[in-house]
């Protein structure tokens, strides 16, 4: 049976968290990698030549992994492109090795894909700490064309699942990008006329820790590089950001309750383990 979803985990020396990332996927499937609804999930792991305990972790779960490798690459975009080239699923999803998929996320997406036929499905995000405890919740609403006419698309990386045809059509990730490869991908989807369908569920647990690419000292040291990369992505995709559009977007999220319910959920879940 062809997998409904192919999930690629890109890893480099994140052995400390990699097992939890793998378990967050396997815990949602039976031994045949089937979800309760019967949909099949395929797991692929691309390791960039780690020197920590990552290979030990991967080999421990090798029987549940459709394909894996450990070799030098040029970065996260290259690793994910390599993984998706091995994928056979109808829908694609990636997961950072230090993050988790939240319980029930795959079942929610599988059912939504079957019911709606949407080619781009997104959900909400929980920020977690090193011990899988919730720090904060992030929510957003449905697509509004006016919101994204002059502003980047507010979708966080692995909170999105997309059809393989979209990924193949845009040529995968731009491997020259280090920080904004997901922003670039969403803008490419938008430019080809695709609009996301949001499910009102938390799908992704983004881990905030000192070694994270976006939370470590590396961030402060390369802010100018990030800004330059972001401007390049906007220019390449024809996005002109108006000063007033982000403000309008914030007002819209205040009006539609996204900020309010995120705050409520943050209080409700703060300190509780997600996995």
Give a written overview of the molecule.
- The protein is α/β, with parallel strands linked by helices and 275 residues long.
- It has one domain (5-269): Alpha-Beta Complex (Spore Coat Polysaccharide Biosynthesis Protein SpsA, Chain A).
- 37% of the residues lie in helices and 20% in strands.
- Strands 1, 2, 3, 4, 5, 6, 7, 8 and 9 form a 9-stranded mixed β-sheet that branches.
- Helix 1 runs parallel beside helix 2.
- 39% of the residues are buried.
- Mean pLDDT is 93; it is low at 216-221.
Number of helices: 10
Q: Superfamily at the CATH H level?
A: Spore Coat Polysaccharide Biosynthesis Protein SpsA, Chain A
Q: C-alpha Rg, in Å? A: 18 Å
Kindly identify the CATH topology: Spore Coat Polysaccharide Biosynthesis Protein SpsA, Chain A
What global shape is seen? globular
Distance between the termini: 29 Å
List keywords for this structure.
275 residues; alpha/beta; 20% strand
SSE arrangement:
Layout: E1 5-11, H1 15-26, E2 41-47, H2 54-60, E3 67-70, H3 76-85, E4 91-96, E5 100-101, H4 105-116, E6 120-128, E7 134-138, E8 160-163, H5 164-170, H6 181-191, E9 197-207, H7 217-221, H8 223-236, H9 244-255, H10 258-269
Parallel strand pairs: 1-2, 1-4, 2-3, 6-9
Antiparallel strand pairs: 4-8, 5-9, 6-7, 6-8
Helix pairs in contact: 1-2
